[in-house]
Write a structure and sequence with these properties.
Structural class: mainly alpha
Number of helices: 13
Helix content: over 70%
Strand content: under 5%
Mean pLDDT: 81
Distance between the termini: 59 Å
Shape: globular
Length: 292
Amino acid sequence: RNGVRLAQTPQTFDAEKIKQAYGRYSTFLLPVLKFLLAFVLFKGINASMGFVKELDSIFLLLILSLICSIMPLNLMVFFGILLIGQCFGVGIEVAGFAVALILVLMILYIRFTPRDAVILLLTPVAFQLGIPCVIPIGYGLTKSPASAISSGCGVVVYYFIQLVQQNSSMLKGADAKESIQNLKVLLDGMLKNQEMMINIIAFVIVLLLVNVIRRMSVDYAWQIAIFAGAIAYIVIIVTGGIFMDVKSPVIPLIAGVAGAVIIAEILEFFLFHVDYSRTENLQFEDDEYYYY
């Protein structure tokens, strides 16, 4: 008013405010996130396969996604029926193979990691987005080593979708004799898929490596785990590709790993944001023990 401008005090970035805001609105945010996850997953399946046009109805996808938004994540995996339905559009033997494959994966999942349903859902999505490395790094940071089983199952689901998509013209319209041959093609396509095997090995090793490092009692353990996992993933994919004669484009691989590192750093910020500049190391003792 007197012609004097007052300098504003810059606002400092407060991680706690973001966490508190998330905690306040998580009741509304979680259903929205589950809805988006389900919609992207279902849309991705239909985009990759698309053999039954009726299943690609936007109305049907919205209804299924709304149902998933209010369901526990563990029950969302049962909507793999959409995948089976698309396989039925190729042939009944392909749908039968999909049922058998999903049952085997579900048995492994329910037996060892019943609370890791979201890994099975996110892995195909991560591959479609070109950032598969985010799955072993992210779950290595947040889950137990047993999550390696679920991540491997997710890799199998993704490559099965790719197998059906690439061979759909050959698999369609088979008679009784050709149906048996189609089953052999599917079985060989899964068991002899070197690229899938490399990715399963990479997922398991990276997840276990990240999990071990982030548990270490050292400063910046999570950041070290993230970058160690990223480097290990690149090394395994490139080395495996050389030995098994599988082409792995380097630039998309590095770009995908870089994207995964960024997402993992965001995850670390929300789950384990520590001011290491204020770290103090203490040592004291009583009559029998030393304490650190």
